[in-house]
Amino acid sequence: MAPHGKELSEDLKKRIVALHKDGLGYKKIAKTLKLSCSMVAKTIQRFNRTGSTQNRPRHGRPKKLSARAQRHIQRLSLGNRCMSAASIAAEVEGVGGQPVSAQTIRRTLHQSGLDGCRPRRKPLLKMMHKKGRKQFAEDKQTKDMDYWNHVLWSDETKINLFGSDGVKRVWRQPGEEYKDKCVLPTVKHGGGSVMVWGCMSAAGTGELQFIEGTMNANMYCDILKQSMIPSLRRLGRRAVFQHDNDPKHTSKTTTALLKKLRVKVMDWPSMSPDLNPIEHLWGILKRKVEECKFSNIHQLRDVVMEEWKRSPVATCEALVNSMPKRVKAVLENDGGHTKY
């Protein structure tokens, strides 16, 4: 049955009239064409009354923009994705001399399937970065889960004492803009934060190390010896260590230490946080920390360590299990950004 309110095509209307002229009744026509009897009846009655199956001219103000102008608006928005509706309206008025409001531009773009959205924040990828990411994905696309389960993933992150660096939203009613529950408080100088280094594998979280001051290559080597090596040994002889291409990670001092300790290090493409599952674990950790109450850095450190140790093994395993999909997504996007 055709959905209620859907207008019939001219061809279908003509078929209804033709079948009626051949002597078929409303019910037989409806059953043959899979339509409702009322729709068949209305079509035949309109034909008998007007002698045509076409609809009568409808009332209402005609569209202000022609089809050509609508295509021009769509080309402008696709040519510059950051161009505002007001700028497009000014451009259209400057070319065609026809005044158009920003709301008309937005409505036209919505009808074309284009919506104004907050852009995803991703690292800037140059051509060499895309080539490196694609090469990494090609090398790793045949690896099975046994390989990924023996990788120790590592990274550093900052956790704020007061609020997060991300975008937050609240549900509110008109007039509630300045209620305490609808306001995001801020403090001078950010209120403080802690820097941490951590590692994880499919078997769960590894060591977590707080970073005091600015980390250099020597401090990073101390972290590797104190925190990374014990976590790596738990994965067995086939363990592979992963870290990104931060200058401290690729320094001569760090490289020499890893070689001395006979650590297998994964070749890692630059600008690829989306390939590192620990990035998602950081996000989960920060959300858990935000739910807790603390008032100083010492309490924050205690909460961070407690929540890190509580991280479920199943969560770590699920993140590592996504590696084949991450690699596939990089290949499908020719080394470009992925949803991860």
From TrEMBL:
GO terms for molecular function: DNA binding. Residues 151-301 form the Tc1-like transposase DDE domain. Residues 5-54 form the Sleeping Beauty transposase HTH domain. Residues 46-55 have a biased composition (Polar residues). It comes from the Eukaryota. Residues 70-139 form the Transposase Tc1-like domain. Residues 56-66 have a biased composition (Basic residues). One of its GO terms (biological process) is DNA transposition. PANTHER family: SI:DKEY-77F5.3 (PTHR23022:SF135), TRANSPOSABLE ELEMENT-RELATED (PTHR23022). This is Tc1-like transposase DDE domain-containing protein.
